[in-house]
Write the structure tokens for this entry.
Amino acid sequence: MNDPIHGHTKSGAPITDALIEDLADEAERGFDPDDLGFIKRESAFVLEIREHLLREEEGVFARMRQLFTPEQLIELADRARQV
């Protein structure tokens, strides 16, 4: 079964469940939060998340506002808050 793609890194590599699990495993093995390598990776991760959210806000959410009624959007928001 193909791993779903959740987005792409700055270098264009797909962000998959397997990649996320690999990174989580690596993190569980131990990072020193004061280590420069950790700080750089953390900063890169935060930037990736911000870019992903911006793409959703500018693309997906804008398109949803075009396609759904205000009532449907409220219902979706209510359902999302329950998760």
User: Anything to note?
Assistant: Residues 35-83 form one domain. The beta strands are 5-8, 14-16. The chain has three helices and two strands. The chain has a mean pLDDT of 86.
